[in-house]
Each structure stands twice: as C-alpha cells, then as structure tokens.
Amino acid sequence: MDSENIQAGHAAEKNTGKRIEVVDYNAEKKRSYSVRSADPERIAALADIPENLVRWVNIDGKCESAVLQNLGKAFRIHPLIIRNISNHTQRAKIEEYQKYLHIVAKMIYYARGRLVVEHVNLILGPRYVITVGETEGDVFDEIRLRLQNKDSYVRAAGPDYLAYLLLDAIVEGYFDVLDVLDQKIDELEEQVMSVTSQDHLHAIRGIKKELLLVNKNIRPLRDVAAIIEKPAASLIQPSTQPYLRDIYNHIVQAIDSTETSRELLSGLTDLHMSNTSYKLNEIMKVLTIISTLFIPLTFIVGVYGMNFRYMPELEWKWGYGITWIVMIVISCCMVCFFKKKKWF
Amino acid sequence: MDSENIQAGHAAEKNTGKRIEVVDYNAEKKRSYSVRSADPERIAALADIPENLVRWVNIDGKCESAVLQNLGKAFRIHPLIIRNISNHTQRAKIEEYQKYLHIVAKMIYYARGRLVVEHVNLILGPRYVITVGETEGDVFDEIRLRLQNKDSYVRAAGPDYLAYLLLDAIVEGYFDVLDVLDQKIDELEEQVMSVTSQDHLHAIRGIKKELLLVNKNIRPLRDVAAIIEKPAASLIQPSTQPYLRDIYNHIVQAIDSTETSRELLSGLTDLHMSNTSYKLNEIMKVLTIISTLFIPLTFIVGVYGMNFRYMPELEWKWGYGITWIVMIVISCCMVCFFKKKKWF
Amino acid sequence: MDSENIQAGHAAEKNTGKRIEVVDYNAEKKRSYSVRSADPERIAALADIPENLVRWVNIDGKCESAVLQNLGKAFRIHPLIIRNISNHTQRAKIEEYQKYLHIVAKMIYYARGRLVVEHVNLILGPRYVITVGETEGDVFDEIRLRLQNKDSYVRAAGPDYLAYLLLDAIVEGYFDVLDVLDQKIDELEEQVMSVTSQDHLHAIRGIKKELLLVNKNIRPLRDVAAIIEKPAASLIQPSTQPYLRDIYNHIVQAIDSTETSRELLSGLTDLHMSNTSYKLNEIMKVLTIISTLFIPLTFIVGVYGMNFRYMPELEWKWGYGITWIVMIVISCCMVCFFKKKKWF
Amino acid sequence: MDSENIQAGHAAEKNTGKRIEVVDYNAEKKRSYSVRSADPERIAALADIPENLVRWVNIDGKCESAVLQNLGKAFRIHPLIIRNISNHTQRAKIEEYQKYLHIVAKMIYYARGRLVVEHVNLILGPRYVITVGETEGDVFDEIRLRLQNKDSYVRAAGPDYLAYLLLDAIVEGYFDVLDVLDQKIDELEEQVMSVTSQDHLHAIRGIKKELLLVNKNIRPLRDVAAIIEKPAASLIQPSTQPYLRDIYNHIVQAIDSTETSRELLSGLTDLHMSNTSYKLNEIMKVLTIISTLFIPLTFIVGVYGMNFRYMPELEWKWGYGITWIVMIVISCCMVCFFKKKKWF
Amino acid sequence: MDSENIQAGHAAEKNTGKRIEVVDYNAEKKRSYSVRSADPERIAALADIPENLVRWVNIDGKCESAVLQNLGKAFRIHPLIIRNISNHTQRAKIEEYQKYLHIVAKMIYYARGRLVVEHVNLILGPRYVITVGETEGDVFDEIRLRLQNKDSYVRAAGPDYLAYLLLDAIVEGYFDVLDVLDQKIDELEEQVMSVTSQDHLHAIRGIKKELLLVNKNIRPLRDVAAIIEKPAASLIQPSTQPYLRDIYNHIVQAIDSTETSRELLSGLTDLHMSNTSYKLNEIMKVLTIISTLFIPLTFIVGVYGMNFRYMPELEWKWGYGITWIVMIVISCCMVCFFKKKKWF
Q1: Which sign, positive or negative, has the C-alpha torsion A33, A35, A41, A45?
Q2: Cβ contact D285–C284 (<8 Å)
C-alpha cells in the first residue's frame, strides 16, 4: 500500500484546485490518492468511507464553489459552512454541530517581509477530516510524512488526533511570527535608544498593526477550551483531550505574548517621544547657553562704542586691554556658574 | 399568485405610513399586498394567518400610533413594546417574551457623508414576522426579491429564517460603515504623516465620535448569543440556529473591528501630536542655530566698534581683512560642530 | 371616594415630616388621605390593609426616626433597613428580603445649576409600597394623577407596577441630567476649539466630577436585572417583568451614556492641551522668526560700525546705499526661505 | 454579674499579651474576666463553653506563639490558621472551614499623620468568637459597652452578630480614612490650581500610594458576599444575613470610593503638568516678546552707528530726533500687533 | 533507616542528570537513595511503591529524554507530559488528569543581578510525587531536612502535602523577587526625584520587563483555586485543602503586588518626564531672563553709538554717567518685576 505514496507526492504538486487530495489510513494500511474535482460523482463517493478507515480530504480553497457544494452535500455539511468557506474575511472560530466540528483557523506567517494571513477551514467528522486551505499548505507536509510512518501514533488514533496535528501545525506557526515581532521590537528599542528619528514612530505603528492583526486572528481560538470541557463532544476521544488542552495552552501563551509585546511597544512610543524631546531640548539648551554667554559681552563692547565726549575709560592706555580681561573674567564666571548648576 | 408581485411593488412606493405591506408565503405560493393603515378591522384581521402560511407585516414607523396599537392588540403584543417602537432613543436589544421575540436593531449607513442611525423593530412570532422601520428600508428589497423566487430556501423555511435574513441585511450594513471608517482612518494617517495641521485633531475627534456611535449601537446585539444557547426558545428552529450563530459571529467581528479602529485612532492622536511638536521644534532649532551663528560674530564686530584711543588692531593695515577671516573661520567651525553633533 | 383627592392635594402641601401620605386603591375605588406622624397607633394600623386594596405609604425622610421605627414595626421591616433609611450616604441598591423588596435609588437633578442627589427608599411588599424621600418629591405628582384616573393600568395592577412607575420616574430623571451634561460637553468642545484658556481644564474637571457622581449613583441599580431573572421573586408578577426589563434597559443605556461622555471628555483634555501648546508654539515661532530676521542684519551694520583705519567700503560713495540693498536682499531671501519651508 | 465589668476594665489596661480577655454572655447574664496567657490549662478550658452562653475571646497578637497554639488546640482550629495569625503580611480574606469561619481584616487608620494598617484575625465558631489584634483595639471598646447593656440586641443574638459588630467597626474605620484622603485630594486640587510647584507631584504620588494601600487591603473583603449567598453556612443565622449584606454594601462603597479618588487623582497629575507647562510657557512668551520688541530697534541704532563717509541722514539736523520717533512708532506698532493677536 | 540519609546527601551532590533521587517515607520510616538513570529496569521498578509508603522521585531536567520516557511509562503518565517536560517555554499551569495532577511552575530568583526563570515539573499521583527541575534545586533542601525529622507533619501526611510543600517553596521565592523589585522601584524613585538623567527611563523599562516576566509566570498558577473547589479531586485530601488555599492566597497576593508595582512604575515614568522637562524649562527660563535683561541695555548703548552730528546728549559732561545710571535703574526695575512675578 505504501507504494502509493509516490502518487500522493505527485498529487500534491498538481493539486491547484483541480484535484482533491485524499488520504485513507488506519493502523495497518494507508492509501493516498487524488480525485478530479470536476467529477461530482467521485466527490459524492468520498463520503462513503470504508470501515475502520479514517479519511483526510484536503481541498484547495481556490477550487470552484460547485466542488465545495458537492462535497458539502456528500458529507451532509450545513450549506452555511460551505458558503462561508470561501469568505476569507470570516473570523477564526470553533463551532460545534451535531455531527461534526467546524474550525476556522488563520495560518499566519511572513512572506517576503510582509505578514500574510491565510484562511484554513477544518471539518472534523466521526471518521473524516476535511481541510480547505487558501494555498497548497506546506505546513501540512510534515503531517503527510507522519502518516506514512506506520508506527506513528496518528495512524492508530482517530480523526480527532489528525485534526489536533493540523491545528497544532497552524498554532506552532504563530510562535514563529511572534518571535519575529519580538525581535523587531528589540531591534527597534536599540535604535530608539541610540538614534532619534521620526521614522521610529512609523515603525512602531507598523509593528502595532501587525500585533493587532495577529491578536485578532488568534484570540477567537481560545474557544477551543469550551469544547474540551463539554464531555458530550463525542467527536473528541478522551485520549485526545490532553492534546487539545495543550493547544489551548499554546493559544493562551500566544495571546499573552501579544499582550506583553503590545505593552512593551507602547512603552517604546513613550521612550521615543521622551528621547526626541530630550535631545531637542539639550540642543536648544546648548544654543541658548552660547547666546547667553555672548549677550553681556556684546553689551560691554557696545558701551565702549558709545560716542560720548567725556568717557574717561576710552582715554586710558590700558582701557582696551582691561576691557578684554573683564570680558574674559565674566565669561569664565558664567561658564563656572553654568557648570556648577550642571547645565552642561 | 405571483402576478400580485407587481401590486406589491406599487405598495412599496406609496407605503409612507398610510399602507401596511403584507407578504404571505410558503413553499408553494406567495401573495403580497397592502392594507390601508386607517382601517382597524383589516389590521385586526392580520393576526388571522391562514394555516401553513408565514406572514411578514412591514409597517412604516412614521405611521400613527393608533395603527401600531391596533396591530399590537391583534397580535397580542405587550403594550410596552408598542409604546417603545416609536421611541427612537431605545437601545438595540433582543428580548424574549413567552410567545414572541422582540428585536430592536439599528440600521447604520452613510447618507450624504453623514452617519445615519435608523431604528428598526422586528417581532418574530410563531408564524409571523412584523417589522417596523423608520424609512422605507431599501435594504429589505433584496429579501422581497428572494421571497418571489419559489426555489429560495426562505420560502420553505419558517418565519425565524425570514427574521434571520432581515437581521443579516442590517448587520451586513455595519461592515460597509466600518469599511468607510477604516478607509477614513487610513487616509487621515497618511495626511498626519505628511502635513501637520491642527485640523487633524478635529478630524480624529469626528471619526472617534462616529466609532463610539457605531459601537454603542452594535454592542447590545451580542445578546443574540444568549438566545441561541437557550434550547427552550421554541421560536427558533434547530435548523436556523447555525444562521443565528453566524450573525453572532458577524456582530462580534464588527465589535472587534470598532475596537481595533479605536486603538489605531488613539495612536493617530499621539502620532499627530508627536509630529506637530517635532516639526515645530525642528523649526525652532534651525532658527536658534541661525541666531547662535551670528551672535559671536556680532560680538567681534562690536569689539572693533569700540572707541578706545589705544587699540592697536585698528591701526593695522590688514586688520579689517583679518577680522573677516577670523569671523568666517569661527562660522565654519560652528557649522562643523553643529553638523558633527547632527543638529541639522 | 374621589372627592378625597382634594384633601390629598392639601396633604401634599403640608406634608413636611408631620403627616404621612396614604393612598389606597384598586380597580374600582381609590382613597387618599394623610395620617399624623405623631400618632403611633394610627401608624401601626397602616399595616392593616383592607382586602383587595393596594396601599401606597409616602413619608418625608425628614420625619423623626421614631415615626420610621413605628412604621417598620407595623410592616415587620428589618430594623437595619429602618436605620439605614436616614443614612443618606447609603449606596443605591436593590435587595430582596423574604417578604419584601428594598430599593434605594438616587434621584438626580439640577437645581440652580448644581447637581443634586436625593436619597429615595422604596419598600415593595405583597400589597403595599412604602416610599421615603428626602424632599417632597414632585417627580411623583404625575403618578398621583395617574392613580386618580380610574382607567389607568396602574389601578388594575398590583403594587409591583406602582413600584415600577415610581422607579421609572426616577430613572427618567437621569436622562435629563445626562442630556444637560452632553450639552455642556458640546459647548465646552466648541469653546476649546475656538479659544485657549486654562479655565477649560477646570470646566472639564467639573463636568468629570459630575459624571463620576452620576455614574456612581446609577451603576448599582443594574442589579435590577438579577431580580427579573429570579423567577422565585413572587413579589413581581410576570406581567410586570417586561416593565422591569425596560427599566433595566434604561439604566444600562444611562450607564453607557456616562461612559461615552467620559471618553469624549477625556479626549477634550487632550484637545485642549494640544490646542494650548500649539498656539503658544505658534507665537514663539513667529517671535523667533522676527528675531532671526534681524540678527544677520544687525551683524552687517555692526561690521560697518568698526573703526578700522583701512576699511575700503567706508570710503565708497555708494557704500551706504549698497549696504541697505544687501540687507534688504538678505531679508527677502530669508522670508522666501521661511515661506518655502511653510514656517509661517 | 455586672460587677465584674470593673475587673474587665482593668484587664483591658494590663492586657499586653500577658492576659487573655474573655467575655461570656447571653440575654440574661454577662461575665467578663481575663485569663493569664501563661497558663495552658486555663486556656484549654476556654473551649469548654457553658451551655446557652456565647464566648468572646480577645487576645493580643503580640503574645507568645505558644499561647496561640494552645488556644488553637483547645478550639480545634487548623494549625495553618494559628501559624498565619502572627504573619502580618497575610492578605485580608474570608475563608470558610467546616466548623468555623476565619476572617482576616485590616484595620486602617491615621496615626500621627501616617497611614497605619493593622492586622486583625477573627474566628467565628458555633458559640464563640476569637479575635486577635495587633494592638489593644480601642475600636472594640464601643462593642464592650454594648455588651454591658442588657437590652442591646447583641446580648440576645448569637456569636455571628458579635462578629458582624466587630467587622462593622473595622469597616466603618475605612470611611474615616477615605474621608481624609478625599479631603487631601481636594486641598491638593486647590493648591495645584493656585500655585505651581514640583512638590505637588510628590504629594500626588504620596496620596496615590496611600490609596493603593487602602484599596489593596479592602478589596479582598468583597468575598463576604460569597458567604452570604451560600445558604449552607450554618454559622450565619438568617437573621444576621441582612447585616452581612450591609457590610458587603459598605465594602463595595469603600472600593468604589477609592476608584473614584484614584481617577480624580490621576486627573490632578494632568492638571498639574498642564498648569506648570502653561505658566512656564507664559513666562517664556513674555520674555520673548520683550526681546523681539528691542531687536529691530537695536538694528536701527546699529545702522546709524556705521562709519560710512557718505551717510546723508547723519548730517541732518533732526536725524537723531526722527530716529527716535521712528523707533517709538515701530515699538507701538509691534505692541499693537501683539495685542491684536492676543499674545499678551 | 535514618542512617541512609548520608547517602542521600551524597546523591544530591552527584545527581547531575545521571542519578535519580528517590525518597520513600511514612510516619515510621524513611529511606532515601538514588537510582542510576541509565538503568531502565530500575526506573521501571520505581512505580512499584511498597504499601503504606509515599515515594518522592526527583530527576534533573537535564537528563536524557529516554530516562523521562522510561519513567513516564512506568508511572503511566501521558506521553504529552513527558514530551513537554523538557520544553522550557511551556507556560506555568495546573492540569488534572484522571490519576494524577500535573503542575508546571516557574522558580524565579535573582542570580548575579539577573532574573532567572526555572522550569519545574511536578506530578502528584495517588502515592507518589515526581519532580523534574532544571538545576539541582537547593530550594528543596529544606524539605529534605523536614522529611528526615520523624515528628514533622509531612511524614504523617500523604503525597499531596509533600506537593504542597514543594509548591510553597517555589511560591515563597516569588516574594523574595518581588521584594527586590519593590526595593529597586523605591531606589529609582529617590533617584528620579533628585537627579534628572535619561538613564532613568532605561532603568524603568528594565524593571518593567522584569515585572512583566514575573507576572506572566505567576499568573497561570491562579488555577490552583479551581482544583480546590472541585471536591472530586480525590488526590487532594480534605486536610490538605486549607494548605492549597493558603498557596492560592499567596499567589493572588504576589499577582496583586506585581500590579501595584506596575502602577507605581508607570507613575515613575510620568514623574521622570515631568521632572526632566521641568528642570530643562527652568534652565531655559533663567537663560532667557539673562538675555532679556541685557537686550534693552544693548539697545541703549547702541543709541549712543550712533554717529549723528547733532546728538545733544553726547556733548553733556555727565552724559556717560547718566547713561550708566539709567541702565542700572532699568536693570533693577526688570529684576524687581521678574521677582514680583515670581519668575525666579
């Protein structure tokens, strides 16, 4: 059976909305193949899962809406879900239906320096998992590899464990993004402390927007906790619950991390503003000190530029020299005074 | 029956408080007509809904209060609701009564550049929906069209689905408004970054007020969640619950969006203030540098303007030239010093 | 019976702690009279309510504490309540006791430009309502009129509806105060935008204190919701519940309104500070520009005030004229430079 | 029996950790005496309460820990409580144990201008109350007096009412402190508005620290509400519940009050900063106006100090006078211009 | 048996991932020994706990992962826990599993002036406690000593009490850190008030980051409350519950303390900024006053430096002297004026 894995590899390459990737597995065997999405009958047959097998159906979100509708009918998924799958402005969420669980998660990563948010739908049924992603999710490749390994736990476990693995792969990605953001903040902090530039404010604003975006897309996933606590959720086996709890912990950790980052970021604005105003004020202070030093001297030379007929000093032989000495003494006194006051 | 739709179109035009628009429908047939609001008996008869039909009664909120009272009596609606319908300062809310559900929602849209908030009442009973709007709600026109289509799901579903459609149309409108607000914030951000003007503060305050208004009118609708969770609400069929959950998600998304916008907006105030103070300070710095450059020079020329009898420099042939050279050297040194310190 | 209403009118006038106003009513008849508060036996008899009647007992809070104690004993009201009635620093609250409901509400209104908070106690029992106000509450006059009208709903309803009416009258008063506050904020906003004065800050602080006062006195009434939700509260008939829910909505609306006002107010502080600093900076900028324009010119005239023997320019015939031209050119260049930089 | 009260008075004086004060009472009789704390057997006997009596045991917290341990063993109190009693950094709290209730409250008052926080432990058992205070709590003297009065309600009520009285005495003390703080804020506000001094900031910070301290020690007592709502708490008789509810209301009121004070206080910082910067800016403005007035004049006199050979104005007879007139006109124009612009 | 304690002391020294420290105890006897971590069979045998004994297994977290996996298998611990043990980025948490309780706590302390966060795992089973720390936790040495003491309560109590002791030792460490932080803030406050230096901002930011780190690692432990309240948690004996409640109180106290510290710290930023700007402004004010004093004088001497032919004052004998007197008078007037206005 494992010989079919090569075919699966091919399928992964071609699968740009035209083919549906299917993986059937249980502890003993595994078969991966692809179905042409233009073939409604074969799609309808997908809901017919051979006994003792778990089926993972992975569709490219860019496929035609008819494909999704056929799939929805086959698996008896609520038409609203099918309609919403292609609506990428949907909020991340976890919703329970009677026979399946609908998860909308956002895959977040940096691509060419820009933050990209991808819409991933995941439907977990009694014996199947359907995933609909925006692009060919290479994040899931590791899970495909694990499924090939006969000894891996996922082969023995049910579809709920597969759903956990998929969700976990997405959540792990959040931490990569948060690490990049933390690093950006650290770098910016160093820059703010060394250079003063109005560009820092724009950089801060840019990071803040990214943080808001990440936070907004992670936060709704906290609802995963609600599903663990409801023992009635027969879709989740007790053995999988610790794993979901682990994901919940990761999500809370990620949210905490965004909060901490935001707090640090807002402190950075204050730091920048304080630094900027401090440095500007320092410059003004030095300039004003220079002016203040010369103004009394200018007054003195002005005095002896007066044209009064009777100004005895003007006639003195050492008048000019004494004036210079007086001016130097005054300057020194002022400099000492300023230094003593620690003005520079 | 469908031939009567033309009449309904007419009714919609004339219906400025004088006629009540009525639509009766089920999967097979649909009839839309209008009733003169001045005729109490015909209003009383409206509560008499033929079996297997769903009735949608749409009244203009500007009609006389007697009309509403008659209608209230006919449908046994609590007099308090009837009294509150014309009170446009009422908060948005969703309230359960034993036999019906009362929803007050606010339609929000931009008309001629100003944000308009309209008061819409919706009463969902076992087999009827009553809507009371402020103006002839063209937002509902799309729903009228859907009702004409025999194959549309609404024809087969109950009044709860119709109520969902009406509420959904209102909620969709929120996103249009939020998009406009987001765009306004983006535009303002660009302006704040390029030009410094005290007008920006007023613009920010204007947008903030609009955001507060939107937030205030959307927030109470979150209570829709409470109604989904109560299984006893026999008015809502299980098949309609996913739709209400969808509306709930949209409302939460809209509220989140206003929060994000507010945060961005408040950051904009800081950005504006920082920019303004930065630019003003920069100007002051340049001006002060100019002054500071000339003050020592003015002192020097002052020195040689003194009238001491014995000033050897004055007698030198190159005294004047040397003074100029000294002054130029001093200026250059100061400019270099300022440049080295990165003061300009 | 209605002939006694005149007497009631008299009673209302004289009733400054010396007389207790009593109104007995049901759908058919109504009797209003007053009891001398100095007569303990008649007070004790007040608890003896004729069958099928609802009794409203209204006491002036300034009466002697013995009167309240007698009344408390007669109606078997907990001594703590009686003790607290005259304690005007009590918080607004709604508390359930086994046989009655104790409501402390604060009547808030403007009197001679100052915000006045009045303490009102309301005890709702199985067949009676006792109100204790600080002053002769003219807010309740409208309710007295309604009770005279045989056809009004209150005559047919129980004491819980009367309590609703009284509470509603108090809550309505909040909106009048909030409207005044909103108007004050609007007026202040206009002033802040046109004039800069340090007085604005004090005005903002004044309004903020009023808002805090209003908010503090309204907020505890939110607990009214808790009473609606407890179905065991046999004192509240199901038919009165929608009315209480309406009051709850009003209270929440009033609280929301204070929150919005506070947010607008705090924005106003920023606006004021920004405007003040902006205008001051503008003045400084203009002054500095004037200084900066003259400083180079002063340097030039200083140059030709030097007394060097060999200064060729001084001998030129057009030296003086050329100097003027140079100075004018320099000034024009500087003005152009400043204008180009948009410095004024 | 009442003759023993004199002895109790003596005991109160000497009781600095060496004697344990005991009061036994019921509706008919009351006995107060003291036990030497060094006598373990007598302490052990304290737990043996004669039938129908309530026992109040009051120990000075500065006694040796062995005393507390003996007492704890006698009354079967959890060793953790005994250990914690002398730990004054313990948080205020209310904890239920199976057979008793442990309350840690903080007595807060001003002593010699400084805020003092005292640690009070209160253990309420089925028929006893144990209090352990830091100092000889004169706050409890009033309660001792009440216990002497045969007709006071406390004599007839159980130990829960005594506990209420003790807790109430502590909570009442909070309001005295809050009143002092409010007064301090009001005084500071007046000062901030009249004088600008950097000391205000330190004063604000001092009050803020006191507020934080008060808030921190009051807040945990809110848990008193949890105990009222649990009907299983057999230690609290239904008749005492309204009293506890009253305490809860007081605590909430005190917390609210600290919140309001903090908000006013933080507004005060803004007011101070704004005032300080405003006044400094005003001074700078006036100074700059003076400079700006003289700079053009200095330029003019500089012009006529030039030594050009051909300067026609210098030869004019009225040159000097005209120059003065021109300078005065220019000054007047500038002053008018500044006045028109409302710059001073 | 106690003779083996010496061996335990040795084990503690060598135990750097190569040996597992084991302590078996009950009220009568205690045995401590170490097991080579490279021996899987002996590890497997560890789960075989002799009846009536409590076993504490302490492993160094730096051991090979195989050791942990063997241990996990022996004690039937969920593989996810074993996997997470070496993941030091895990959040602090308390999680209940069916047969054991998994606690991740963070040991926080200062080492060489830097804040160190250590990851500690604690698994509490029916008759065992497993601890996995990052370093050889000397914090636990005191507990080892207590276990040697036959009379200590821990010997008689179950593993839940041992877990309490371990957790308590960690929580106590938090207060040491918080005390250091409080002291740092106090020192910084004094410095901010006396000296103005831009370094303060960096110091504030440093402390803030430490506070955020501490808060983040303490906060999740609040969940300890959830475990106390669930009576089903058979792992926790009722007699241990008060101890856990005590830990909960300590954790809440620690969190409160970080909140208070953060508030004080943020106030410190304001204080620093205000002080800095105040002092800079004061300097500028003095400098400007000096300039302003000399500018009118410079104007006067300029006047008499003019070369008009007809300037009567120049010819006066006392002209020069009078000019000096006038200038001194003007200076004095200005100084008086500034003093009167309290400008310096």
Answers
A1: positive
A2: yes
